[in-house]
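Researcher: Here's the sequence for the chain we discussed earlier.
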Amino acid sequence: MDVDTAILNRRSIRNYKVDKSVPNETVAEILDIARFAPSSGNLQNWKVILVADPGRKEELANAALKQKWITTCPVLLVICNNSADVKRLYKDRGETLYSIQNVAVFVNNILLAAHSLGLGTCWIGAFDPDAVKMVLRIPEGVEPEAIVALGYAAEELEAPSRKTIDQFTFFETWGNVEKSFSVFEKGKAKVGEVKSKSKGFFSKIFGKKKD
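Model: Thanks. This is the structure I predict for it:
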């Protein structure tokens, strides 16, 4: 599966096949791909806790504002931010921004890698971090940033609506839209259409084809 297809077809799945487990080898493959995410100073400050025990999943569901659907997922990946090295190198900005950005890119790689291998995922950010730390015995100085549900989807979801690129793109300075115009039918772009229409968008604006 190419990256265009993975990005355009990935969905946030909250309904999983409870009778189909995810092999450890598949989880390892996903993480092996995801670890090539960029990070500030190449510090790779992410840590991952795999959770498959039903009782512990129940505790995490309670910590995640009682989102009980989480318990139906075969595997939960709790992605943590061990920011000490990033803070040491980049001071406060490293701790409060760079370390979180690093983890976010890593999580997105997990979502795309999992989708490319035929699995569903959901990025969960609504949880009590202190409760998660208690359940998983996460030490001080390390923060859980995301919980990723991972399993085989038991639902098919339509593509959500998205803003067209002219609705969020400015030129040279904030708010400058004088060159902007609509090139996509809202919510209907497919892989091939995105490629062809985006080339037309940039060639018309800058007077040349986008390679």
